[in-house]
Design a protein that fits this description.
This protein is α+β, with helices and mostly antiparallel strands and 95 residues long. Helices cover 65% and strands 19% of the residues. Strands 1-2 form a two-stranded antiparallel sheet.
């Protein structure tokens, strides 16, 4: 959407204007602008949080797959495609 630096600059400008509104006595406007600035902060950190959680989930699933080795063979390791994570398992033949 927007460059990360632009998001931070917009947030800083909105917070500065909110402080100005507080000093002028418009408390409601200042609070509204502070809340508006949080939208840009959330947009800034959104991708970082999503990628970290996906990596952690993939690591946890890989660790759990080692516990299944005596029952099933891993055909394909976990692959994240959008919101779906695909793992392909096949049963091990009993010997």
């Amino acid at each position: 959407m927007y460059n990360k630096n632009i998001k931070l600059v917009i947030t800083a400008l909105i917070i500065a204007y909110a402080v100005y509104q507080f000093t002028e006595g418009y408390i409601g406007n200042g609070i509204m602008f502070i809340l508006l600035s949080t939208i840009f902060v959330f947009l800034y950190f959104k991708n970082k949080l999503a990628s970290k959680s996906a990596e952690n989930t993939t690591k946890k699933i890989r660790d759990q797959l080692y516990d299944l080795e005596e029952y099933a063979k891993v055909e394909q390791l976990p692959v994240l495609e959008g919101k779906r994570m695909i793992i392909q398992l096949s049963p091990k033949k009993k010997s």
